[in-house]
Amino acid sequence: MIMALWFECKVRFDKMMDNGSVKKVTEPYLVDALSFTEAEARITEEMRPFLSGDFSIPAIKKTNIAEIFYDNTADKWWSVKYNIITIDEKSAKERRAAVYVMVQADSQQGATDAFNRGMKGTMADFEIEKVAETKIMDVYPAKFLSDETGNADS
Distance between CA 154 and CA 144 in Å, rounded? Predict the structure, then answer.
């Protein structure tokens, strides 16, 4: 398994609003890439078919997202912060290490349920600290040349 490195890319473009007017908007997307340069190239490649006219990428930042749980029937992205609980052998005290996961779901409860399904079989003790809806519009995993099906193996 290849570890993903997720970048949040903000894309600025002219969007047709429901009332027919055109408004400049900036929307965030997640891209799996090895560097800022690759993230910019990937988001440009992914967005080009969907946007007519000029668009820009005013910001790219590295995220601390460890994993993505997909559900192609849902259209919202949720950030789940959970803590892995371990016991320090020397002091016998509980330690918590925060981990962030993105979950695709239609509701907060759906995100919590999907997260728990994704964590089934995990040997470590953990507790959910926070489940929050994000503004992320879409997530673009890495594409691998050896994968002919179009599915990413990340």
Answer: 9
How does strand 94-105 pair with strand 76-87?
A: antiparallel
Q: What is the pLDDT of residues 73-83, one digit of tens each?
A: 999 999 999 99
Q: What tens digit of pLDDT does each residue of 84-141 get?
A: 999 988 999 999 999 999 999 999 999 999 999 999 988 989 999 999 999 999 999 9
Give SS3 for 45: helix
**Of 140, 10, 26, 129, whose CA–CA distance to 79 is shortest?**
129
Q: What region, left, alpha or beta, does residue 32 occupy, with left being phi > 0 and alpha being psi -120 to 50 degrees?
A: beta
Residue 51 tokens, joined: 């946007």
**Pair of tokens at residue 80:** 């789940």
**pTM of structure:** 0.85
**Paired tokens of 103:** 């979950």
Compute the distance between CA of residue 47 and CA of residue 45 in angstroms, rounded to an integer: 6
pLDDT at position 153 is 45
- DSSP state for residue 140 in the 8-state scheme: E
Tokens 């400049």 sit on residue:
24
Q: Which residue, chain included where needed, has tokens 């993105």?
A: 102
